[in-house]
Design brief:
Elements lengths: L21 E6 L14 H10 L4 E3 L5 E3 L2 E6 L5 E6 L13 H14 L3 H4 L3 E8 L2 E6 L20 H4 L19 E7 L3 E6 L13 E6 L3 H9 L5 E2 L6 H8 L4 E4 L11 E4 L9 H9 L3 H7 L5 E3 L23 H10 L11 E7 L5 H12 L3 E7 L2 H11 L4 E4 L7 H4 L1 H4 L19 H12 L3 H18 L2 E3 L1 E3 L3 E4 L2 E2 L16 E2 L3
Parallel strand pairs: 1-10, 15-16, 15-17
Antiparallel strand pairs: 2-3, 4-5, 5-7, 6-7, 8-9, 9-10, 11-20, 12-20, 13-17, 13-18, 14-19, 21-22
Helix pairs in contact: 7-9, 14-15
């Protein structure tokens, strides 16, 4: 075997200078922050758990397992969550981890986390009767709350670092102190994030490697070659363009795992900006939907690595997914007729109206080009702009200078957490990423979302979600497109690459390397 993984190099480092076992982990986009407490960005969710842990983690059967909490109970009415915390845990700066950290973290999630604003909205009190006990009191049931306590979704942060500060601008986001298996050392923007083994980790003997280098490779064309030559050991998502995937997976030193996507339940969507007058007309939204050949999008842009996802609920959330919902049929002639009905007739130059399209870079540029070309065929001129990740977030969620947004907002582990943030009118807030980017408002939808969020009966809750997704589909509130396959790619010498439903967004405490 080659030694690239076991003695992986930082940029500019010589082979002789490298010592110990190093894993090179590919990240496609620069994260806006390294702590997921205030941000749900995909790159952040992949790095954060290595440093900052959650109360629980989830195995491949989606069962909660002890992390910072060793035991938990929920009262039958769903209004009290009682956690016993691990006693032998210290923060990376040596301070003791206590229930006060849990209480402060939940308060931050409740106010500043895009999904946490709804997930923890019914938490009315956080009690800490002693240093190793945390009790959450709820005003209404939140049947999904325990599932939100994984490190990738709700990492526990140090109160002594955050108290009295703005969590959105706290320096800990760029140089985090956590309790996890890896200690932050440096972040060289555009290059790498260096993490080193935590020698005082509570789970004795872990992690099994000395160093984790998170390599930031925004250039899509450079990712597959990096795997081929052993420069990169592991990546998820998939981490390479789907056009390269079949060839890469055929290489003898490359392995892959299709598990690990259930917690995230990825889905791509086309959202309308309801501040754009033309898009408030359902006929225009339906015309846009019927101008898109979504099967062709799956085959030509996603190379078949995914499934059609016509509803707001991902097909991967089987319990809540209404499989009777289908995409509106691809019918450009009908689309043109709808635009005529709406008063957008073709002008002498053949165009009808102009719209600005932005794309989350976790979608591909090719997906944006596909939408642009499809809509231009029915006379809609598209100004398609493809930005880096931080620029996209700012322009879409703060400046709001778009008409259409090709997004990648995951359903995550529960539709209330993953979908309510998108269509709940109360979750529109300038500058809050991955929330209600469309500024969609509907009182009936709000009422259904709020009812589903607190319904403890599983059958009744499923029925509510069937009503929600059918209403959104009938309104053409958005165009839901593809549920991409989540594929982890890794070098064969990597052991335990993923351990549960969060995939590469796990802690990597168990990851190992074969001897060179």
């Amino acid at each position: 075997m080659g030694a690239a993984s076991a003695t992986a190099l930082l940029p500019g480092q010589s082979a002789r200078a490298a010592k110990g076992k190093t894993v090179q982990f590919l990240l496609e986009q620069e994260p806006p922050t390294l702590v997921a407490a205030t941000h749900t960005a995909g790159p952040t969710a992949r790095v954060s758990p290595k440093i900052s842990e959650g109360l629980v983690w989830f195995d491949f059967d989606a069962r909660p397992r002890p992390a910072l909490a060793t035991e938990w109970t929920v009262t039958p009415d769903g209004l009290t969550y009682h956690f016993k915390l691990r006693s032998n845990v210290t923060w990376h700066d040596g301070r003791k981890f206590t229930s006060a950290d849990v209480a402060h973290s939940v308060a931050v999630f409740k106010q500043y986390n895009p999904r946490g604003r709804s997930t923890f909205s019914s938490v009315t009190a956080i009690e800490t009767p002693d240093e190793l006990t945390a009790i959450l009191r709820l005003s209404k049931p939140a049947p999904y709350l325990l599932n939100a306590l994984d490190a990738s979704e709700s990492p526990i942060i140090p109160r002594h670092i955050y108290e009295g500060t703005d969590p959105l601008t706290n320096p800990n986001g760029s140089a985090p102190i956590g309790t996890g298996p890896f200690v932050f050392r440096e972040w060289v923007r555009g290059s790498h994030i260096l993490l080193e083994r935590n020698p005082n980790y509570w789970d004795a003997g872990k992690p099994h490697v000395d160093r984790l280098v998170v390599r930031l490779i925004a250039d899509q064309s450079a990712r597959a070659p990096a795997f081929e030559v052993g420069e990169i050991d592991i990546g998820g998502g998939p981490p390479v363009p789907r056009s390269d995937l079949e060839r890469l997976l055929a290489l003898p030193h490359i392995a892959h795992d299709r598990r690990g996507g259930d917690y995230n339940a990825s889905i791509t969507q086309l959202y309308f900006n309801y501040e754009t007058a033309s898009l408030r007309d359902r006929r225009v939204r339906l015309a846009i939907s019927q101008a898109l050949d979504i099967q062709r999008l799956l085959d030509s842009v996603y190379f078949g690595f995914g499934v059609l996802s016509p509803s707001a609920v991902s097909p991967h959330l089987v319990k809540f997914y209404d499989k009777s919902i289908k995409h509106y049929p691809y019918d450009p002639k009908r689309a043109e007729a709808l635009l005529d009905e709406a008063g957008f007739h073709r002008k002498p130059d053949g165009t009808r109206l102009a719209l600005r399209l932005y794309a989350n870079p976790f979608n591909t540029r090719e997906a944006g080009d596909f939408v642009k070309q499809s809509l231009q065929k029915i006379g809609i001129v598209i100004d398609f702009q493809f930005f880096d990740f931080p620029t996209y977030i700012h322009k879409a969620y703060t400046d709001r200078t778009f008409d259409l947004a090709l997004e990648s907002l995951s359903n995550v582990f529960d539709p209330t957490v993953g979908i309510q943030r998108v269509f709940w009118s109360k979750n529109f807030k300038i500058g809050l990423p991955f929330s209600n980017v469309a500024r969609y408002e509907n009182t009936e939808t709000d009422a259904l979302l709020e009812a589903a969020a607190i319904e403890p009966d599983e059958t009744k809750r499923r029925d509510l979600w069937f009503r929600i997704q059918n209403k959104l589909h009938d309104e053409v509130a958005a165009v839901h497109l593809i549920a991409p396959d989540d594929i982890t790619v890794y070098n064969q010498r990597v052991g335990n690459p993923i351990t549960g439903v969060t995939g590469v967004s796990g802690t990597f405490a168990d990851i190992a390397l074969a001897a060179a």
